[in-house]
Amino acid sequence: MELNVLDEEYMYPGHVACPGCGAAIAMRFLLKTLGNKTIIILPACCWSVIAGPYPQSTLKVPVIHSAFETGGAVASGVRAALDIKGDTETTVVTWAGDGGTFDIGFQALSGAVERNEDFIYVCYDNEAYMNTGIQRSSSTPYGAWTTTTPGTEWKKMRKKNIVEALVAHRIPYAATASIAFPEDLVSKVKKAKAIKGSRFLHIYATCPTGWRIPSEISVKIARMAVQANIFPLYEVENGLKYTINYKPKEYPVKEYFKLQGRFKHLTDRDFKYIQDMVDEDWQLLLRKAGERS
Fold this sequence. Notes:
With 293 residues, the protein is of the alpha/beta class. It has one domain (22-288): Rossmann fold, CATH 3.40.50. 36% of the residues lie in helices and 14% in strands. The protein has 11 helices and 8 strands. The protein has helices at residues 22-34, 46-51, 71-84, 99-103, 106-114, 162-167, 182-194, 208-211, 218-227, 253-257, 268-288, and strands at residues 38-43, 63-66, 91-96, 120-125, 173-178, 199-204, 234-237, 241-244. Strands 2-1-3-4-6-5-7-8 form an 8-stranded mixed sheet, with helices on both faces. Helix 1 crosses helix 7 and helix 3 runs parallel beside helix 5 (106-114). The two termini are 26 Å apart. The model has no long low-confidence stretch (mean pLDDT 96).
């Protein structure tokens, strides 16, 4: 299937992302879809480093580095300034990690989307605070090792469902996407660009460093997350209409977990518990979409 994106690249080669970085792959697809009429807001995250300090930049579009907690507020201000200038063509995008979305940035994000500010908020989700040393976030999945959940103290709480939190605000558009399914990702970016108001994209972005995987299987791991129903691909319009975009093969979750060093401590009993949680969430999503398993 053809991606149908712009021929031009909007990322310079030689950037400092880790080998196999899913967040770098995701940004490349985003900008090749949106084009040069884009302004990127970067709250503190891995991409603050990848993009580089002024006057250098990895990106060929304007970038504003903002404080960790202000992604939603800064995007609101930039959009207002563009509107005053009569610029209706430029797309404003906040590009934040899970820390700047699920946790530290959630207050500003929630306030902005409650006002239905006209911008796209993208969370590239690598499931921990990777830029500062692999600390757990509320996006970190049950069972994961991080530097703040080490040894036998691995995370024993479920991952926050950030899409459902945004859906509860009744925003025009919220969707999940994955670097392993580029056609779906590009299609959702195009759809979000065409919509006015607050749009939210939750992109699954593998982190070989924090997940303890070889860089060459980064995309494979992302694909397995979808196929095992750990990260389903779906979209929600106006907080009401659910559409499941891909029906997975429903592989056992153990096949996904056993390839990652951050889960090497888990037992078969733990895998059974996680499988039950994943199955429960999938059945709930099917009901919301009005579908059957």
